[in-house]
Design goal:
Layout (H helix, E strand, L loop, with lengths): L5 E3 L1 H8 L19 E3 L7 E7 L3 H12 L2 H11 L5 E7 L6 E8 L5 E9 L13 H6 L10 H21 L4 H18 L7 H10 L3 H23 L2 H18 L4 H4 L1 H7 L5
Parallel strand pairs: 3-4, 4-6
Antiparallel strand pairs: 1-5, 2-3, 5-6
Helix pairs in contact: 1-6, 2-5, 5-8, 6-7
The chain binds zinc ion (ZN).
């Protein structure tokens, strides 16, 4: 049972600093959910609650099936589906378009994360996420990707990228995200009003408390979620398609995210797919 829950719109803070991206912003406060919804689990008693308008149910089911066909995706789904102490709501909303977001984090009085919401756009199987921050999703998107990679695979990769954000939030030490939700807006406000001086002593102090700049925190999480997407893709694609994706991921990382390349262990992936280097 959840006692005294508190909700913090953590990711909305990051939206101020980075305006682009697949999942950079939270839903505006007060946004009304699509109706009527085909809700499979209406209580907040744990598990996964699918909040999907009936007209979008067929496409959502395809995305979900595409995820569950891999052992990695199935395990990730079942980890949340089987929990009674945590409710993951997955919404499908036209407002998100080709993107997705994870927000509405809720903690109990003991600091345990007990709920979160993933919102998927109704056009999730389209679009081209930028190669910086989204090296894997970018490599899967058309026209760069192999034409045999189905759009549903692309959508499922975006879904598990968001699940990666929930897993990261659940794994964070109690209070860390709440602290960020308080301090990041302060950081941004000071930065925007001091002539964009990153060496402002107040910002240095906040950076120390946060463990990095808001952008550094945000990009670390995006790349971690891209590693999650990579694991799904590795199991889902044929070796031939996977090799094409791996080459593009490597190019994206070398160009934009070399500091994060080691997270992906590309050498192992290239070897397991028997790719020509
Ligand atoms: Zn993300």
């Amino acid at each position: 049972m959840v006692r005294g829950v508190r909700s913090v719109f953590v990711r909305s803070a990051f939206a101020v600093s980075l305006v682009f991206g697949l999942c950079s912003s939270a839903l505006p406060h007060g946004l009304v959910a699509d109706a009527p919804a085909d809700t499979m689990l209406s209580s907040s008693s744990g598990g996964i609650r699918e909040d999907v308008p009936k007209r979008f149910r067929p496409r959502f089911d395809k995305w979900k099936s595409e995820l569950l066909v891999t052992p990695y995706g199935k395990q990730a789904w079942e980890r949340f589906a089987g929990r009674r102490d945590f409710t993951l709501t997955i919404r499908v909303s036209e407002e998100r378009g080709k993107g997705a977001a994870t927000d509405k984090f809720v903690w109990d009085d003991d600091g345990n994360l007990v709920a979160a919401t993933i919102t998927l756009g109704t056009e999730l199987d389209g679009g081209v996420p930028p190669p910086v921050y989204y090296p894997v999703l970018n490599a899967l998107s058309q026209p760069a990707a192999s034409p045999s990679i189905r759009p549903t695979v692309f959508a499922a990769a975006k879904l598990i990228h968001e699940i990666g954000h929930v897993e990261q939030a659940a794994a964070a030490a109690a209070g860390v995200l709440e602290k960020e939700s308080r301090l990041v807006p302060k950081y941004i406000e000071i930065f925007l009003n001091n002539g964009l001086d990153a060496n402002d002593r107040r910002l240095l102090d906040l950076r120390q408390q946060l463990g990095g700049t808001p952008t550094q925190l945000w990009e670390e999480r995006e790349y971690n979620s891209e590693v999650v997407a990579m694991r799904y893709v590795t199991e889902r694609l044929s070796d031939e398609d996977l090799c094409l994706v791996l080459h593009k991921v490597r190019e994206n990382l070398e160009t934009y995210g070399s500091a994060f390349e080691s997270k992906f262990d590309l050498a192992r992936e290239f070897a397991s797919a028997a790719c020509r280097r």
